[in-house]
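Re-run requested by the PI after the first attempt was lost when the workstation crashed. Everything re-entered from the original request form. Ligand of interest: 1,6-di-O-phosphono-alpha-D-glucopyranose.
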Amino acid sequence: MCSTTRWCGAPGGAKIGRRDIDAAQKRRKFLEIRFVEAGPFTDQRPGTSGLRKKTRVFEQAHYLETFVQAVLEAAAVPRGATLVLGGDGRYLNDRAVQTIVRVAAGNGVGRLIVGRDGLLSTPAASHLIRSRGAHGGIILSASHNPGGPDGDFGIKYNGQNGGPAPEALTERIFETASKLKGYRLADLGPVPVGEPGRRDLGGLVVEVVDPVADYLALMERLFDLDRIAAMFASGFRMRFDAMGAVTGPYAKTVLEGRLGAAPGTVVNGDPLPDFGGHHPDPNPAHAKELLAEMADADGPDFGAASDGDGDRNMIVGRGLYVSPGDSLAVLLANADLAPGYRGRVAGVARSLVTSRAVDRVADAMRLPCYQTPTGWKFFGNLLDAGLITFCGEESFGTGSDHVREKDGLWAVLFWLNVVAATGKSVSELLADHWARFGRDYFTRHDYEGLDPEVAAEVVGRVVERCAGGEKELAALGVDRAYEFEYVDPVDGSVSRNQGYCFEAGEARVLFRLSGTGTEGATLRCYVERYERRPDRLHLDAQTALADDIALARDLAGLDALRIGAPTTIT
Ligand code: G16
């Protein structure tokens, strides 16, 4: 696709003129900048969280460069700006970092703050953008999707607030990439990123930082780490499964280093290009070893896991795991136990498809509770405006206003803080919580790798049901059905087609298509039911929800379409 190169120097999507070229040459005395003709690429529309594709798609000539060029232009990154750069260490991370350095230099970026070895967890990148006053950051990750040459790769842009680009910007990025005729590239050899330090490359400064140090300092301000350390000193045992991904170095430094947890507490702690073959998604389906260990009568007191880029978390007690909706609710109810949140919680938000457990706590605390579409980007405005302090999603994401991403290790430390302060185990905390607020049983059934036409048929069926007459719905026990549309309370932007919701008494059944998959289509079906009866608070979720799951399959016509059992249940 690339045929010729020529001199250039005008970022921001402007036409390249003689004056730009002169200015660029003057500024970059030592850097040669070329315009590489390539593209356009018309398949670079970011999904729920950035652009995710098969690794081989990203390995195509000019593919990554074009996307980065589109980001820099669409986000109007000014000359001399500072950007943060790092990723989850998956296959291609190292080469992608070098490519991005060259495209950034070609576009007049002044400083790149890069995690050592090109590594940064997503929450740590968000924190660096904020703490260093950067214009934004580029994060390399396909999150929980498996990595490797046959796995997935991803890239996303986060803005000045440290949060994922909002929909309007991701759409601009897509449109820009669809029209680009090439990208600007500085001729640079490999830039060493193995040791912290600064290197002036003749205009572009590359600053390599320890990825963990700043993050630990932030956690120190939020939680009572001394109290947690005292709990470990008294024999408390934990297992943290980093799943061969980026959280390993963070967890080792924080848990085994700062908190004194026994060596070996962190397992699968070295970030590997293929995550050691793990599917780095911290849920009961993919963290089976951890669940088995925690089911053992002599197992650790506390278990946790995180995902590829360190923003997801799963909390596990002896013999049970905490549903993400419950996790958010328990943390909100116990916010005063964490020094960084005591007496300052403004409100809370959850995505539509997340269980309503947190709503009940917010209600009791007289706090506002917002319902957003799926995608952390929708929490950004609420956090920036100070309307909420905590937010969370069913996809094992929990976070607060300390960064603008969900934060896996943060959630783990918060839980440890609550356990240390109350002296109660995870199961005791949950039992107390359900006794007080009732329990929101929740499950998500994923139907992955569907033929897109079949998925469209399912959605068509759901839409039809949703728009169906009251009588027809009432016959199924459904009181209300609607398609979710979100109006951002801060900037008034409207997001349509954000999922379908059926309310049936104390139950809700919801459907949407995933926006993070890379193969075929994934139908997500979310089922929940509120329960208050004391003798029904400790059932297995699949058992408690059996009738509602059957309703979900009926609503979507899954049997008629011969779609069998879900591929993943969480
Ligand atoms: C991303 C988003 C989350 C979303 C999740 C699943 O998480 O940041 O907000 O809940 O994907 O999205 P979907 O249901 O569209 O697949 P992550 O951890 O993958 O970056």
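Saved to the shared folder this time. Residues 275 and 433 are 35 Å apart (CA to CA).
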